[in-house]
Amino acid sequence: MAVAAAQAVGEGRDKFTWRRLSDFAALIGLVIVFIGLFIATPNFLTIPNLTDVLVASSVLAVMALGQQMVVVVGGIDLSMGATLPWCAAALAVSYAHGVGLPLAIVVSILAGALIGLVNGVLVALLNLTDFVVTLGTLSIVGGITFLLTGGNNIQAFSPFLQSLALDGVGPIRWFWLVAVVLAAAVWVYLFRTRGGTHLLATGGDIDAARSAGVAVKKWRLLAYIASGVLTGVAGVLFVARNGGADPTLQTNLLLSSIAAVVLGGSSLFGGKASVLGTLCGAVLLTSLINGFTLLNISQAYQPIAVGAVVLMAAMLARFNR
Amino acid sequence: MTAATTDRSTPATGQVLLEASELYKSFGAVRALEGASIRVFEGEVHALVGDNGAGKSTFVRCLTGVQAADRGEISFQGTPLVMTDPNDARKRGIETVYQNLALIEELTVWQNLYLDREITRFGFLDRNQMKTKSQDILKRLDVNVPSIHAKVQKMSGGQRQCIAIARAVNWGSNLVIMDEPTAALGVRETAAVERLINNLCQDGIAVLLITHDMDQVLRCANRVTVMRRGHDVTTRDVSTVSPDDLVGLITGAIQPESRGG
Question: Interface pTM (ipTM) of the complex?
Fold first, then answer.
């Protein structure tokens, strides 16, 4: 019909807007940080340093992928800050008690899944507010981890973990591979499977998704479990990198995981995800901290910088609505 | 094409598709339905009209399984229908287009058309097949959207309505129930939706159309059921009534001779 056709003209093309710009915030930010640090210090853009930055980014990237799964359904997982050391402690403590390494790794991932399950049941099935629930589990899990480790650094030395942290295939480090393979898996799941479509639909408009027949409770629950599982994997990387589980190391990773997701172009309101953006966001935040170290800037500025980036990301998210 | 040139000579002589008889529903002291009945024939556009509070919404919610009636029977294609949730109605081929449309803004047109009924191959989405079939269904129903690859948030109200209707029709349904499909639309968009209703009718799909627009009843429907105070007061062939008659029947100014239908 002519009427509808006439209306259609000019509606199909995207215009340049803040919304479009914010989709690429992480990539643009990454380029700016790289150029800035390249100018500021000759030590940044070197192969050994970039290799280190990417290895350090991997732990954050895997956590951010977990955060991404929850953010996609319109939720948020604040418990991650405690779940990471909890999973690391589960690995280190079970390994220290004679559990074989493969099983100890499984224990770490299951420990993450358990926290995800608790969050998911409370948020998705009992309809409690995600913010409050995961803040509550953040505190509880932090306390339990402290009891489990006695507040000490539990060491876990194993040739496998050492090799995982330090080696790779040629120039490709195992850490990068883990992060990239998991990112690819998350991307395929979100954008190429039925489950992913339902996660996006649940986050996009939960009432509409429910009316269309989507099992929204199930998908919200699974999102939190996925977040826990990915945090468990991040915990394994964390132990490999640090040679053990130190419950006091980790504090800024929670905020960084949220910042990476939002900088990456995902909407905190749900329904919109960008896996590549999340990876870029993780590398951006890690580069920033690396640059501060290279430039000998006081450690006090690191949380300030991360916080500023998060606020900027929040502003972008505002335009993103 | 002019808007909604429904071929009203199509007689409602087919089989009875959906029949509800003497439905009762109370909410505490409020008696929302008091013996409401309706018969929708195959392939007809059946309008349901009534004032606010006449019980239309409750009636429709009972017909689609969203609410259970306290008393009364519903049958579909001759067999009694026991519905505990909307999926029961959907499984039998009754699709409802709710006023909120149940579309996901962030997903594309084709993703919305296949939401919860995705086609998969080896566990992965068969995107090409869904896109091709989406093109086909929109073409068959003569629905114009800028692109099936565009997100629904880029669509106008009328286009959204058409997409939601197309989704309902896509599932081989025999009956599409539409709740005020044009209430929020402008004149041109209303025309597009009415044209789509007409297309459905020609495809042999029955439509139960809940509306406040008396002219729309005359433009689109074959028959019309008027509700008042929780029950149907009359069902008429649209060719035998005027808008004034309908308004009179709705307000009670005109007393029907029989409940008919």
Answer: 0.85
